[in-house]
Automatic annotation (TrEMBL):
SUPFAM superfamilies: NAD(P)-binding Rossmann-fold domains (SSF51735). SMART domains: PKS_KR. Pfam families: adh_short_C2 (PF13561). Keywords: NAD, Oxidoreductase. InterPro entries: KR_dom, NAD(P)-bd_dom_sf, Sc_DH/Rdtase_CS, SDR_fam. Residues 7-186 form the Ketoreductase domain. Transmembrane segments: none annotated. It comes from Halobaculum gomorrense. This is NAD(P)-dependent dehydrogenase, short-chain alcohol dehydrogenase family. GO terms for molecular function: oxidoreductase activity.
Length: 251
């Protein structure tokens, strides 16, 4: 896609699922990619996959809920490839789907720490360096749970928070040439959904899938295509937008 070739991308949560697919898509379009995750082994596998396809990638073990880790991630990206042009702040956890009163404050805080504060940590590091560098494009991973009650309380709250941060960042940094959007996937076939099925039972996930006009789960590559499009010049006038990629569920 226009404008990706030769750029530098950072993708968090890149050891699996949507993050890995997005990192591979950035690399296949010609970007150098820094992949970040808490899972060092699977992260190394993402690098192997990208290199096997002829792409360029470096792994940086990172916990997005730790602001020092995220500062080190951005610093290491600049040292390795230069200031990032693109970022996909994707790392996330699902938390429990139990009713609110059955969840503890710790359950709530853990999901907020990773999904919402993680995006905050990434944005605060990325926006400043991108703005100083003349611009860039950021995609934050929200969810249909960022637009509706499609999940447990902590998860829904965290993903609504991601949409809010996306809008503020887009409004504040548009004048500096940084576009900031969110992607809101529906049910996508990843390990997160395998774990959620174990908790809710297959029937819970099937019910959501049956409610989708397209009557199937999405593939991580279908989300990756949206992520990279939102970073490309093809979407040059799109900012502050939560792009739904859900097979029609929200509709
Ligand atoms: N799969 C879906 O149906 C779906 C739907 C909507 C939104 N999402 C969102 O997409 C993103 C990716 O989900 P996925 O389905 O690929 O999940 P996944 O569990 O397959 O992958 C998530 C990755 O994030 C990493 N991670 C977790 N905590 C981290 C932390 N503190 N720091 C760094 N990395 C961490 C994990 O190690 C893992 O590699 C998440 O934000 C998720 O909420 C997924």
């Amino acid at each position: 896609m226009n404008g990706i070739d030769g750029g530098v991308a950072v993708v968090t949560g890149a050891a699996a699922g949507i993050g890995r697919a997005s990192a591979r898509r950035f690399a296949s379009e010609g970007a150098s990619v820094v992949v970040a995750d808490i899972d060092a082994d699977d992260l190394a596998e993402t690098v192997d996959l990208i290199e096997a396809d002829g792409g360029e990638a470096t792994a940086v073990e990172t916990d997005v809920s730790d602001d020092d880790d995220v500062a080190a991630l951005v610093e290491s990206t600049i040292d390795t490839y230069g200031v990032p042009d693109f970022a996909c702040n994707n790392a996330g956890i699902e938390g429990s789907s139990a009713p609110l009163s059955d969840q503890s404050l710790d359950d709530y805080k853990r999901v907020i720490d990773v999904n919402q504060t993680g995006v905050w940590n990434c944005l605060t590091e990325e926006l400043a360096v991108m703005a100083d560098n003349g611009g860039g494009a950021i995609v934050n991973m929200s969810s249909i749970a960022g637009l509706s009650a499609a999940g447990g309380g902590p998860y829904v709250a965290s993903k609504h928070g991601v949409v809010g941060l996306t809008r503020v960042a887009a409004a504040e940094y548009g004048p500096a040439g940084v576009r900031v959007n969110a992607v809101c996937p529906g049910v996508i076939d990843t390990e997160m959904i395998d774990r959620a099925s174990e908790e809710m039972g297959e029937e819970g996930i099937d019910q959501i899938v049956r409610a989708k006009p397209l009557r199937r789960m999405g593939d991580p590559d279908e989300v990756a295509a949206a992520v990279v499009w939102l970073c490309s010049e093809e979407s040059s006038f799109v900012t502050g937008h939560p792009l739904v990629v859900d097979g029609g569920y929200v509709a």
